[in-house]
Every structure is written in C-alpha cells, then in structure tokens.
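Deviation from plan, reported transparently: flavin-adenine dinucleotide complex.
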Amino acid sequence: MSADSPDSRERTATAPMPVPRRFDLEIVSVEDWTQTLRRIVLRAESLRQLDYRPGQDLMLKLESGRDTVNRRYTIRRADLGRGEVEIDVVRHGSGPGARWAESARPGERLFDVVAPRGKITIDRGVDWHLFIGDETAIPAMFHMAESLPDPRKVRVLLEVGRPVEAPPPPPGLDGAVHFVHRSGGPPGADGPLLAAAAGAPLPAGRGRAYIAGEARTVLAVRDLLQGRGLTRDQMAVKAYWRRDQPNLDRGEPDSAE
Ligand SMILES: Cc1cc2nc3c(=O)[nH]c(=O)nc-3n(C[C@H](O)[C@H](O)[C@H](O)COP(=O)(O)OP(=O)(O)OC[C@H]3O[C@@H](n4cnc5c(N)ncnc54)[C@H](O)[C@@H]3O)c2cc1C
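Because the crystal trials were delayed, the predicted structure below was used instead.
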C-alpha cells in the first residue's frame, strides 16, 4: 500500500471494533430503491448475533468467470431480531458485483460472507460531523449520520448522477443532507463533490469528516479539506472503487496510481 493511499489514513474508533465472522446468507428481497441503487436484504439465523458499527460492511464472495472475487457492500440497516441486513448496490456496469446485483433473486444463497469489515465508524467525541461521498457511500453515510443524536451537528454531501437519483434522506435528516449532481458527467470525476466540499461550512469546535467513494476523488476532497484547515486525524478517508479499473480480488481498489 502506498504511503498516500486512503487506506493508510483509515482512523479507528477508540473502542475496539467487533471481530469479523463468516456467515452463510439467503437473499430475502431485491428491489430498486432508486434508479441506480438496488436494495438487497440478506438473512441468516446466525446474523442475530452480528455485532457491527454503522459504517461497517459485508464482504461477499462472488463469481468472476472460473474464479471468485471479494466485493464489499456497506450495511445500510440491520434488523438483528430477524437476522436481516440490508445493502444498497450501485447499478453501474458489468463487474462481478454489478452482475451479481442485477441477477440477484430471493432464495439465492451466499456462502462465506465476512462481517463486519471496515474500520471507519462514528467518532462520538467531536462537536460536528461532515459526511462526503458518491452514491457508493450513501449506505455508509446515511447509516452513520442517522446514528447520531443531534441532526444540527451533521452535514451530509452526496453526489448522484441526476436529481431523480437522489434517495430520500433518513428521517430527521432532511435539512442535513445535500445532493450535488453530475448533470450528465461520468461517475468518479471529482468536480461536483469537490465544489461541494469547497463550500461546506466548517463550524467552530472540533469536527470530523468522513470521506468515501472513488479513489482519486476521495484524496482530492481530503486535500481540499486539509487546505481549509482540517488535520489528517480529523478525516476518515476510504477509497471504495477506482474509475476505469476493477477492484482487486480482495475487494479494494488498487492503491497504486
Ligand atoms: C469498504 C467498502 C464499502 C463499499 N460499500 C459499497 C456500497 O454500500 N454500495 C456500493 O454500491 N458499493 C460499495 N462499495 C464499492 C464496491 O465494492 C465497488 O464499486 C466494486 O468495485 C464494485 O464491484 P464490481 O465487481 O461491480 O466492479 P469492478 O469489477 O470493481 O469494476 C468494474 C468496472 O466498473 C467500474 N466501477 C466500479 N464501481 C463503480 C461505480 N460505483 N460507479 C461507476 N463505475 C464503477 C470500475 O471503475 C471498473 O471500470 C464499497 C467498497 C468498499 C471497499
């Protein structure tokens, strides 16, 4: 991993993170939540014992030709009493993850799912929280934001392709969530999100920024916020995918430029 990779900047919460385990899951339902986000609910009896933090994800083992690859999707919501978790997958093309989501049907099984993965979750010891990401980060940002008690201390900036692709904000967060649009531009080009980050209010007190999405964009947003006075340890940065390159078999984008 390069010294400048977003992964090397992942910050851990102070409390120990839950230990990942393996699960065999069944698809309960598949629905198109928005024009670009496909919502898939997964269930297992053993998920009743899942311990996870908002912002953490599932690592799925998916077919890719004769091989299997890992692809990661953030837990959007969990109903642990029913042993269910929900993920929202961006419909974007024909990689193994996108193909799986397109063909997913209730009753199908997924084996060896690892959960929870990921080190980024809410830092509760700060005065305000700024969430920034593209549509792959909507599950993480919404789940982390809705877990905070005071919406006045939360701002969520998200990029989608067109206004019609913006999902409704979680209850109570209407005033905190702002969408920017690519207006026909390709996903993963950093323009709209950078402009949003440049204009985002950075209130007084100690804040924290959570930045996730396309690899080059997250670094550009990080650098911009650093230029505006946030320090590296005030930012949790995670690359979810890289424009024009498949993720590595382990589910992460390649950190080499
Ligand atoms: C910790 C973590 C959490 C994540 N959470 C989510 C989540 O909740 N929901 C979600 O949808 N994704 C999420 N992602 C991103 C997702 O895992 C990647 O987008 C993954 O690359 C998709 O796999 P794929 O097999 O479809 O495409 P790949 O085989 O990785 O890539 C194939 C092609 O598709 C392009 N591509 C990949 N993703 C996108 C995209 N979103 N838009 C446009 N082009 C793309 C690539 O640049 C490449 O050209 C997460 C990633 C990580 C690391």
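DSSP finds four helices and twelve strands in the chain. We consider this an acceptable substitute for the interim report.
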